Amino acid sequence: MEYPITDSAYRASKKKAKKLYKELNSVWSPALKDEVVFNSAGFRHLIWKGSEQRPHSQQMERFSLISKVSEILQSPDANVVFRKKDEYAVVKWKGEKKTVISEANFWAISKEINGISIRAVVRQVGKGKKHFLSVFSEKLKKQKTAQE
How many domains is the chain partitioned into structurally? Predict the structure, then answer.
């Protein structure tokens, strides 16, 4: 039986996660042979998926995994899966809205920790810096699939 999440529990979880996230700043990833920065886009993605806010239970699950991200990214033997995708953004340019297409690279870096497969996702837009985008466990991924 799942118990409802109280607002105070959610706020406490988010506050703790944000503090830990800010302390990460950046880490060297031997698997990517590059530095991965932790910016606001990554923390925002833990809370939102596009314009939809994730359920609090899913956010809290992701918050609880932030403490494992550095270990995953710094692991030389982590499993890495790469993909490339075009991303579209609407921007204002000279008073008009324009759609801009950027090429984005994604790396899903997985490592088994305490019997659970945890995946950290890193994104690079164009020639920008690689930055943390998300973290989830395989358990969470299966829950998400069951809900869809």
Answer: 1
